[in-house]
Amino acid sequence: MSKQVVLTGIKPTGMPHMGNYLGAIRPAIDMARDENVEARFFIADYHSLNSVRDAGTLRSYIYEVAAVWLAAGLDPQKTLIYKQSDVPETFELTTILMAFTAKGLMNRAHAYKAAVDANREKGQSEDHQINMGLYTYPVLMAADILLFDTNVVPVGKDQVQHVEMAQDIAGVINHNYKEDLLVIPKAQTSENLMTIPGLDGRKMSKSYDNHIPMFLPEKQLRKIIMKIVTNSQGLEEPKDPDTCNVFALYKLFSTPEEQADLAARYRAGGMGWGHAKQELFEKLNAEIAPMRAVYDELMADTTKIDAILADGARRAREVASRTITRMRKAVGVA
Ligand code: TRP
Asked: How far apart are CA 118 and CA 113, in angstroms?
């Protein structure tokens, strides 16, 4: 059986948070360890340009994302890691895809529709502050995916529609030229890890400002964990683990035995919220602390990241140039 190509992109928009780590980074790195998988991870820097407009900021976000993935255990010898902007074939493929992308398809994209709705609500014109980068975002993302003959795209729920759009666009092209020209990708979301609760119990998200950044100094990490919202039950009262945000997060960092043990202590009473949070802090920190050390080292001298990304770009372009040559011939420009 040939290996499955698994590809995912991460937009550099600042330090990833625990929701990104648990929902995307950790499962993707686990998957990359699978011998039957050929994993490709990239930094979607041109996707960020739609919103990050300061060069220094974008540059440091790119390093942060690279350092996070490497610190979280990505092995650059085994797994391809590269920067989208280093693979210019992406943008040539985007041009080809554009010619086959219905404008109506883009009109239906959730992210674009949400921006239009937000404008309407504020009484602004529909197009206010919407650039073509946002509007055509799904085409660039389709190019990222299709360029690498990707079989599987591990993504959060919010990105599934984009992968479906890549399927649509590839389908139109295959139908026009030949059915096996582009590999049709599949989205993969992992059910149990899909919604990571934030400090207030809603989905962890930077836009709700309820997130736990991935690498905080220990003191600050503990402080933010102490802010997780709980109910007002007193120390002695028995507590329900299944409706508790602290427990929900604890589950993601512990073994089934540890979970059963903490659940029993919840139900027995005599354990306050401060204790539960302390347990969570310790578990979470035990997993994150070694990564934080690697992260700090990589960020202190970014030449190592530069070298890894340069090597990744070279290897990525070998694959990308084969696809683009195939596409150029297929459409008739070569
Ligand atoms: N749109 C994705 C996000 O915001 C990032 C991304 C860009 C991506 N290109 C991709 C993800 C290709 C998977 C495959 O999270």
From this structure: 9
Express the helix, strand and coil content of the chain in percent, nearest 5 each: 60, 10, 35
By most ligand atoms within 8 Å of CB, the mutation choice from 6, 7, 11, 91 for ligand 1 is 11
| Distance from residue 127's CA to the centre of ligand 1 (Å) | 23
Residue 37 half-sphere exposure toward CB, CA atoms < 13 A: 18
Cβ atoms within 10 Å, residue 248: 17
291, 72 in Cβ contact below 8 A? yes
The residue whose two tokens read 């149990």 is: 192
Ligand 1 pocket check for 44: Cβ under 6 Å: yes
Asked whether 8 lines ligand 1 (CB < 6 A), one says yes
Identify the residue whose C-alpha is closest to ligand 1 atom 11. 9
**pLDDT in tens for each of the 334 residues of the chain?**
689 999 999 899 888 899 889 888 888 899 999 999 999 999 999 999 999 999 999 999 999 999 999 999 999 999 999 999 999 999 999 999 999 999 999 999 999 999 999 999 999 999 999 999 999 999 999 999 999 999 999 888 889 999 999 999 999 999 999 999 999 999 998 655 557 899 999 989 888 999 999 999 999 999 999 999 999 999 999 999 999 999 999 999 999 999 999 999 999 999 999 999 999 999 999 999 999 999 999 999 999 999 999 999 999 999 999 999 999 999 999 9
- Å from CA of 159 to ligand 1 middle: 7
Quick check: CB of 155 below 6 Å from ligand 1? Answer: yes
Distance 274 CA to ligand 1 centre (A): 37
* 140 CA distance to ligand 1 middle (Å): 9
Q: Report the distance separating Cα 253 and Cα 266, nearest Å.
A: 17
State the distance from the centre of ligand 1 to the C-alpha of 10, rounded, in angstroms: 6
Q: Is the CB of 159 under 6 A from ligand 1?
A: yes
Q: What are phi and psi of 7, to 5 degrees?
A: -135, 135
